[in-house]
Each structure stands twice: as structure tokens, then as C-alpha cells.
Amino acid sequence: MRKVQIKSLKKNPTIKRTSLKSLALLVLEIEGAEDTEIDITLVDNGYIQELNKKYRNVDSPTDVLAFPIEVGVDLASTHSARVDESPRSHPTQFLGDIYISLDRAEEQIPSGETLETEVSRLLVHGILHLLGYEHSSEMEEKQEYYLNKVLNSTQSGERDTQVGERDTQVGK
Fold it and tell me: Is the separation of the CB atoms in 117 and 106 below 8 Å?
């Protein structure tokens, strides 16, 4: 079972948390991340600037920060392996926290795109970091693949729930 929790410390009516959750679950599924959990928090520039200063020694806002558990960042130390409370309880591995600045996302929206698309791009970027990817052409290719997949499924009105041949190739 995969779990995604989304909190909004900065509200924006154009951001659909259910869409972000579906995207996160899709990425985790295709990447083969079974029994995992991530926390996503939507914040403003001031909040993410404080995190950036505290953990990266950079005193300015950024668009997305990902704190993988394996790195030993103590930000989410209370999230060690959790147990699902359902009758078929499976231990879940907490992968980490992702913080996305809605202010910064709005500032950097590419021409012709929406805030939701930019936030989706940042979300995929953060998830790939939690899964161990570093900045590379492979990571960029995966980001674009997932965004195109979501945009295409949104345009057709439904989410593709099948993990096809292309998904397996890109996901591994």
C-alpha cells in the first residue's frame, strides 16, 4: 500500500490536492515503490526560505525541497516505519517529506502553463529525489514523462491505471 498525505499551509483554490495525490501515487506505483509513504506540504516563500536556510545554508526561497529519510535529515525523524491500522496491516516505509512553495511556483510558471502543472512538475521532482534520483537527464526525462502522462489523462478525462510497457521502461 502506498500512502500520500498532503497538507496546505498556504491555500490556493486552483490547486487540487486530490490531483496531486493521484499523481504522487502514480509515480510511486510506476517506480515500484511498494508499501511506502510520503508527506507533501504546500507552503509560502517565507516558510520554505526558513527550511532552505536551516538545512541547506541558503537564505532564500526555493521552489521545492525534498528530505529523504535515508539521508538522516532529522526533520521527519518522527516518521520512522509506520504500521497501517487497517485489518491487513502492512508496515510502510516512510520515504520523506516534500515541501513546495506555491509562491515560487506561481513566480516561475512557464508561458502557457497553469499553476497546477508547475506544482505537479515540482511534486514529481521531489518524489524522484526521495527515491534516490539526482539531477540528470534521466531524471528530467522521467519528470517530463510523468507530466505528459498526467496532462494526457486529464485531457482524456481519466487517469490511466494500467502500468504499461512504456511505464515499466521509464519506471525502472
Answer: no
Q: Show the domains of the chain with their CATH numbers.
A: 3-156 (3.40.390.30)
Model pTM above 0.90: no
DSSP category for residue 78: G
Whether the CB-CB separation of 89 and 33 falls below 8 Å is answered with no
| 96, 130 contact by CB (below 8 A) | yes
End-to-end CA distance of the chain: 19
Q: Which three cell numbers stand for residue 120?
A: 505537479
Strand partners of residue 65: 99
Give residue-wise pLDDT tens across range 58-78: 999 999 999 998 644 333 333
d(CA 32, CA 26): 10
Cβ within 8 Å of residue 12, ≥6 positions away? 42, 102, 115
DSSP string, 96-122: EEEEEEHHHHHHTPPTT--HHHHHHHH
